[in-house]
Amino acid sequence: MIILKLGGSVITKKEAKKPTLDHDNLDRITKEIASSSFDKLIIVHGAGSFGHPFAREYAIGSEIKDEDDFNHKKLGFCITQSWVKKLNSIVCESLRENGVLAVSVQPSSFIITKNKRIYACDLNLINKYLDLGFVPVIYGDVVIDMDESIKICVLSGDQIIQYFGENLKPSRVILGSDVDGIYTKDPKKHSNAELMETVTSCQDLAAEGSLNVDVTGGMNGKLRELLDLAEMGIESEIINAGREGFIKKAINHEKVIGTVVKTKNSK
Ligand code: ADP
């Protein structure tokens, strides 16, 4: 089983103020997936500009101040849920048109979090889809949270990767982003940032000096989820899905540039 993440930064124009698809990337990547070989495949995609602008505007996941504030946040929940569902529908259609038996799985209809971490999630459905030869496609969404002070929150595709990885024990976890992997600092801001071939722990990063290794923004949260997974013996690799052929090669187990996240003890 392979779990493949398609970053929101790859399939959407991430910095856009309103939902904007990256048609070219999406079409190319779904063709690459369709022409690669796999037994069981789960695709998880991010929300990019289809989710973040709304989640931010309505401060979903922040403490609820009063009833008006909650009503406002609930409206934001509905809007965000609707846009990320649209993105998922576009992704599934693109996959299907290119020959992948993609089925949509909506997180907000079966996942509940507690303090923003997945608390209830029935994986039987996912397993059943896989057994029947479908490719489940799940995504970053808004969900109900058990914590009374927030009641609702954002569930990232990266947390789904961590939870699915831990519970479904895939043989491979591949994350396609818009950079070549984890660098010593944000490569978009620093031309002297160096790509790290492997990352083995948070301490590693700190030990190498927060002066030298600086992982921020989306990549920071992602790396923490992946290090969690590595602790459970599940190795993952981050590659650049923006580069032509990389997703196909990675699924086919061919070597591509990237960063492997694993524990020190694993080979
Ligand atoms: P995705 O949408 O692909 O899941 P994110 O946008 O959440 O990914 O995170 C990827 C971004 O993280 C990159 O575009 C990069 O600008 C940023 N980033 C920050 N620090 C680092 C780092 N040390 N190494 C790599 N990327 C980094």
Walkthrough of the structure:
The chain is of the alpha/beta class. Helices cover 37% and strands 19% of the residues. It has 9 helices and 12 strands. Strands 3-6-2-1-9-11-12-10 form an 8-stranded mixed β-sheet, with helices on both faces. A 4-stranded mixed β-sheet has the order 5-4-7-8. Helix 6 runs parallel beside helix 8. The two termini are 20 Å apart. The model has no long low-confidence stretch (mean pLDDT 94). The structure holds adenosine-5'-diphosphate (ADP). Adenosine-5'-diphosphate binds next to helix 1 and helix 8.
Radius of gyration: 18 Å
Average the pLDDT over all residues and give the rounded result: 94
**Given the structure, what is the number of helices?**
9
Order of helices and strands: EHHEHHEEEHEEEHEEHHEHE
Give a quick account of the main beta sheet: strands, pairing sense, barrel closure: 8 strands, mixed
Terminal residue distance: 20 Å
How much of the residues is beta strand, in percent? 15-25%
Q: Judging from the principal axes of the Cα atoms, what is the shape?
A: globular
Helix percentage range:
25-40%
Low-confidence stretches: none
Number of strands: 12
What compounds are bound to the protein?
Answer: adenosine-5'-diphosphate
- What's the arrangement of strands in the largest beta sheet? 3-6-2-1-9-11-12-10
**What class would the helix/strand composition place it in?**
alpha/beta
In short:
The chain has 267 residues and is of the alpha/beta class. The protein has nine helices and twelve strands.
